[in-house]
Design brief:
Rossmann fold; alpha/beta; globular; seven-stranded mixed beta sheet; 226 residues; 32% helix
Length: 226
């Protein structure tokens, strides 16, 4: 994603915390990936950045050892957000870049609003944003609207293609579903399937299929360190 590369600025060595399978790792830079899950590490393709297994809250790295830190779609999974943010600040010299979705910004997401409310993280994201701003008072925020053809597997990626959420292969790459209760998911998806078959979804949300992009609250946060 170009906006992430731009946000890293002149950084040359970057730590990518909560890197997962490496979908958003910048090329052309010296990147160290940090990922706690052996399963995700095993999914990293050949040729991706070197990786260490560790948690954001306890980085096995020296102080000021990287130019910048990158954290993409991960901070809401950390067990101690404040400790993780302080670790990022400890090991980098210039800036911290965080990509997340704040459900309280932008347009409501119909999937969590009407079908899968148990997957709506709105309540905890108020605390997440407050903690980030407390640790990085000068953080800058940039909106990232998602294009209609954005198919990289984000939970919200198929906002104009509701049929995709009925595909188990699509859902298995989304951590939101992996962490959800099976009964909740089945009930919500059954309702979505029914509304697609009856045309109810299109009567309510069909206009989304004509939009080129939609702001669903995705933001890039950039904190310059003193």
């Amino acid at each position: 994603m170009a906006i992430l590369r731009d946000a890293l600025g002149d950084a040359r060595c970057v730590i990518n915390v909560g890197a997962g399978a490496g979908a958003y790792e910048p090329t052309g830079l010296d990147v160290l990936a940090v990922e706690p899950s052996e399963t995700m590490i095993a999914q990293r393709p050949i040729g991706s950045a070197r990786v260490v297994r560790a948690h954001a809250e306890r980085l096995p790295l020296s102080d000021d050892s990287f130019d910048a830190a990158l954290a993409v779609n991960t901070v809401h999974h950390w067990t101690d957000l404040r400790a993780g943010l302080r670790e990022l600040r400890r090991v980098v010299r210039t800036r911290v870049v965080v990509f997340l979705r704040d459900p309280q910004r932008g347009d409501p997401f119909w999937l969590t609003q009407n079908y899968l409310p148990s997957l709506d993280p709105s309540r905890r994201f108020g605390r997440i944003m407050a903690t980030i701003r407390d640790e990085f008072p000068s953080v800058r925020e940039y909106p990232v609207p998602l294009p209609r053809d954005f198919i990289d597997g984000l939970f919200t990626a198929y906002w104009a293609q509701p049929e995709m959420y009925l595909d188990a292969e699509v859902r298995k790459n989304m951590s939101n579903f992996a962490l959800a209760q099976d009964e909740d998911v089945k009930s919500g998806l059954d309702a979505l399937r029914s509304d697609l078959e009856s045309g109810a979804w299109d009567r309510s949300y069909g206009h989304l299929r004509t939009l080129t992009e939609l702001d669903l609250g995705h933001r890039v946060l950039v904190a310059e360190l003193p």
